[in-house]
Design brief:
This is Tandem-95 repeat protein. It comes from Cohnella fermenti. The chain is built from seven helices and 61 strands. The relative contact order is 0.05. It is flat, with a radius of gyration of 45 Å. It is α+β, with helices and mostly antiparallel strands. The strands form 14 sheets. It has an 18-stranded mixed β-sheet that branches. Strands 20-26-25-22-23 form a five-stranded mixed β-sheet, with no helix packed on it. It has seven domains: 316 residues, Jelly Rolls (Sandwich); 81 residues, no CATH class; 90 residues, Immunoglobulin-like, CATH 2.60.40; 104 residues, Immunoglobulins (Immunoglobulin-like), CATH 2.60.40.10; 85 residues, Sandwich (Immunoglobulin-like); 85 residues, Immunoglobulins (Immunoglobulin-like), CATH 2.60.40; 69 residues.
């Protein structure tokens, strides 16, 4: 994304045209479609798909669409082909530390391709645009390079953000643009106003804020010495591959200059002979400068030249005399521009340092303020807590104080009666509810799909002579395990007997809590056959329990009949068909198969037909059956020669931890029915045959990256080529956590621990962040999702705060914790009676008394007045009692106290 600047920042618009087209030749009109394909790559290359937030590792033949980004690392490079993937496509070779975004890919009546180069460097070779309305643009923070039949090298300076473009063939029209994407004159593509044409051997450097009227001052002959410092081995290879085309186009330019059909451009500060020499020697001088300055080793350059030769292309010779001829004016301008760039880099570097210093100072200040605020809050909470405890202790009797200290000691887990500062309660660790296996292995057969703790159903195939197998389940926690109802220790083998056919094994895992259970089901198929007898070749065929398709090969017409022999034990039945027709059996005594003497068998007479044949054998025992297919071909006759099928590779995207069906494909001119055979299996996953050309692929648990396997197709006569299925295994999309709000009741003047909670489908470890703190209290982080809340002294009512959870990738929603702060529970006062002596005929003041733990202000109320006198309220708890005249004896009254 381009930064907005406080001053008017100028971008750079480059419109590159074919050299001959600039002077009146029109390109052929044609429509073309557009797509970017990674044809070559090395090192660290990643792709971020449009709308996605995660990067995936790039791989060869990966398609890039509008909105996608390509990022090369410190040792990465990539070559992109646009259009249909042929050698005639436009190509872009991307160096290390480069970021490209495919901002627009459009096809129709015209084709538009816009690639934003945010940083780095790239070589562009554009040659196949077929319509004058077609566009190919490379955008940088300060440049837009519109291309038609042009070879150029573009660099975005990582320090200053300036763009440098060097033209090797064709013509480039440069127009400054303002930051909003328009040109300096208000048009998207620019016009001849405020623009400059760049010819072969010239370079243009445009910085942010350049004056459009000074464009020609930024144009000079290419600075070879500076250019080779920016080039990588991949760029040199791309230039060498374009050498023949560049030389042909530039020779046409030279011919027109010599014939007077074209004048030497006014921006070229040299004579005609010098310019023509420079055009011819540009690439040779570039290579020689790279070798002389040791930017590339001679052996490496020779290897690149040899590689391009082997591709059938012309290459330049290593000529020590290849150099560019510079006039005094060109040397002076080159020096001036070099100093200008140096000053710009120094200014940009200093500006970056100033920003970093300013950011560091701001960060330090924020950290200091946060630390001070946290310390102040902690001190306030501590003081408030101590004051509340002191007030409580003062209101208690000695016995109550002793009980309080004992309760506090139990809560704090200490034997001392002295109050401590520890706030961590003593708790026991809850027992795990995890009932998953961490591993599952077999002594015979292979699990399909590959084991995953969250996959609960598997199959495995074993040979017919495997009567038992060892099963080794391993629990991920301290769980108990049973195999077919028999308890086994985690990580040890349990022996399971196998009958011919299908065998079901149940593995039950009970979690440590004794409640949570999970069952894994394993189906083990024991084959009904181990060997088949044939009356040709080696006399027999050993059956692989995981393979059901076999090729018997080619037969001459005179040898196209043979006997098929099968063992017979009285329980297994067979169904044999040849080309869809049932083949009857003939009883016999087996002597050709290695089975116990006296075992009977079945014989079938097989008579193949000319051409392709399909022999099918179905073995059945009870509900279990397996069908084996054998293909054979009989030559002779006058039919047409067979055309071998052509297997077609594929690129498949898979999500880590998830299986996917992959359909293999091949073409066959004869339209024969095809079967498929895996040649090399995947290195990071398992492949299970479903039916036909469908296979189920499951990546190894936890693996992300690339995987592949190879296969061939068979049409009953010939095998195809070997094709590759490339698999890109991307990490699963992250599920953001869901923060769960809560309602908490608190007591005024008393702190409380609040545990924040959130759910996460991916079971990632979560951290919590307070978004908005409480308005009427303080919040102190304890650990994990635990926070200590203390309400403001004397406050009662509602309070709240908000928080989010973070799983390491995404933040959750914002949830609210609502807090209801109630006054502390009231303790009723205790009225204390009294005995008073009064003289007859004399009044007396009586002071009523009561105690109250909360030290509330008390009022008194007379319940039953005296029977032999009068009672008059004075104030507070004071009453004046006057006995009835002449009465002596006892009198009394009752009262209560009220604390509000």
């Amino acid at each position: 994304m381009l930064r907005k600047l406080s001053i008017q920042a100028l971008a750079f618009l480059l419109i590159a045209l074919p050299l001959l087209g600039v002077f009146g030749k029109e390109s052929q009109a044609a429509s073309s479609s557009r797509i970017a394909i990674i044809s070559e790559l090395s090192g660290d290359v990643q792709v971020q798909k449009s709308g996605g937030s995660k990067k995936i590792k790039a791989f060869k033949k990966l398609n890039l669409n509008q909105g996608d980004q390509l990022i090369t690392g410190d040792n990465g490079s990539a070559t992109l082909q646009f259009s249909n993937g042929t050698s005639e496509d436009d190509t872009m070779t991307v160096s290390k530390n480069t970021t490209l975004k495919f901002s627009k890919l459009k096809s129709g009546s015209s084709t538009v391709t816009k690639v934003s180069m945010l940083k780095g460097s790239a070589w562009s070779d554009v040659k196949s645009i077929k319509n004058k309305d077609d566009e190919f643009q490379v955008e940088t923070p300060t440049a837009i390079m519109g291309v038609r039949g042009t070879n150029f090298f573009a660099i975005v300076n990582p320090i200053t953000g300036s763009t440098n473009v060097t033209v090797f063939a064709g013509v480039v029209q440069g127009t400054p643009t303002v930051p909003n994407g328009g040109s300096a004159n208000g048009t998207e593509g620019g016009s001849d106003n405020d623009s400059v044409l760049i010819y072969p051997t010239q370079q243009l450097t445009l910085s942010v804020g350049i004056d459009p009227s000074s464009l020609e001052d930024q144009l000079s002959i290419v600075d070879i010495q500076q250019l080779v410092e920016k080039m990588s081995q991949e760029i040199y290879l791309a230039i060498l591959r374009s050498y023949e085309k560049i030389q042909e186009e530039n020779q046409s330019l030279i011919d027109e200059l010599q014939d007077g059909e074209r004048e030497l451009p006014a921006t070229v500060d040299s004579d005609l002979d010098a310019y023509m020499s420079n055009v011819q020697n540009l690439i040779g001088a570039l290579i020689q400068q790279a070798l002389d300055s040791s930017q590339i080793a001679t052996a490496t350059m020779e290897a690149l030249l040899q590689q391009v030769k082997q591709e059938g292309k012309q290459v330049p010779s290593l000529d020590d005399n290849a150099k560019l001829i510079l006039s005094d004016a060109e040397k002076e301008k080159q020096k001036k521009l070099e100093e200008q760039q140096k000053k710009a880099e120094e200014a940009a570097t200093q500006k970056q340092k100033d920003k970093q210093k300013e950011a560091a100072e701001k960060l330090k200040k924020l950290q200091e303020e946060a630390a001070k605020k946290a310390a102040d809050n902690a001190e306030k909470a501590k003081q408030a807590k101590e004051a509340a405890e002191k007030k409580l202790l003062e209101s208690l009797t000695q016995q109550q104080q002793q009980q309080y200290q004992e309760n506090k000691k139990q809560l704090e887990g200490t034997t001392s009666t002295t109050p401590t500062t520890s706030t961590t309660p003593s708790t026991s660790t809850p027992k795990s509810s995890d009932a998953k296996l961490s591993a599952l292995a077999l002594s015979s057969g292979t699990l399909s799909p590959a084991f995953s703790s969250t996959t609960y159903s598997y199959t495995a195939n074993v040979s017919s002579d495997t009567s038992e197998t060892g099963i080794q389940p391993t629990a991920s926690t301290a769980s108990s395990i049973k195999v077919n109802g028999t308890a086994v220790s985690s990580g040890t083998n349990a022996s399971v007997q196998l009958s011919p056919g299908s065998n079901s094994v149940a593995i039950e895992v009970t979690a440590e809590d004794g409640v949570t259970k999970q069952t894994y089901t394993l189906t083990i198929n024991r084959a009904l056959l181990s060997e088949i007898g044939f009356s040709f070749g080696d006399g027999g065929l050993t059956i692989d329990p995981d393979v059901t398709e076999y090729n018997l090969g080619n037969f001459e017409p005179e040898d196209s009949s043979f006997y098929l022999t099968l063992p017979y034990d009285g329980t297994t039945t067979y169904d044999v068909t040849l080309n869809g027709e049932t083949v009857p059996w003939i009883p016999m005594q087996l002597v050709s198969l290695d089975i116990p003497a006296g075992t009977t068998g079945l014989m079938y007479f097989i008579e193949l037909a000319p051409g392709n044949n399909e022999l099918q054998l179905t073995t059945t025992q009870g509900d279990f059956s397996t069908t084996y297919t054998f293909t054979a071909y009989v030559g002779g006759g006058e039919g047409p020669a067979n055309n071998a099928p052509v297997a077609i590779g594929a690129e498949v995207n898979v999500v880590a931890g998830q299986g996917q069906t992959i359909n293999l494909t091949a073409t066959d001119e004869d339209e024969d029915e095809l079967t498929y055979q895996i040649v090399t299996g995947p290195a990071h996953g398992t492949l299970e045959h479903v039916e036909g050309g469908s296979y189920y692929y499951y990546p190894t648990q936890g693996y992300t990256g690339t995987d592949s396997f190879t296969f061939t197709a068979f049409d009953g006569t010939d095998y195809s080529n070997e094709a590759t299925v490339s698999i890109q295994i991307a990490p699963p999309a992250n599920n953001a956590p869901v923060a769960v709000g809560a309602e908490v009741n608190a007591v005024a003047g008393t702190g409380q621990t609040i545990n924040l909670t959130a759910t996460d489908e991916d079971e990632d470890e979560l951290t919590y962040q307070i978004v908005t703190g409480p308005a009427h209290g303080t919040l102190e982080h304890v650990e994990g999702g635990s926070y200590y809340y203390y309400p403001t002294q004397g406050y009662t009512g509602t309070d709240s705060f908000t928080f989010t959870a973070f799983d390491g990738t995404d933040y959750s929603n914002e949830a609210t914790v609502s807090i209801q702060i109630a006054p502390p529970a009231n303790n009723a006062p205790v009225a204390v009676g009294a005995e008073v002596n009064v003289m007859a005929g004399t009044g007396q003041t009586i002071n009523l008394t009561a105690t109250d733990e909360d030290e509330d202000e008390l009022t008194y109320q007379i319940v039953t007045g005296p029977a032999h006198g009068t009672l008059e309220h004075v104030e507070g708890g004071s009453y004046y009692y006057y006995p009835t005249q002449g009465y002596t004896g006892t009198d009394s009254f009752t009262f209560t106290a009220f604390d509000g």
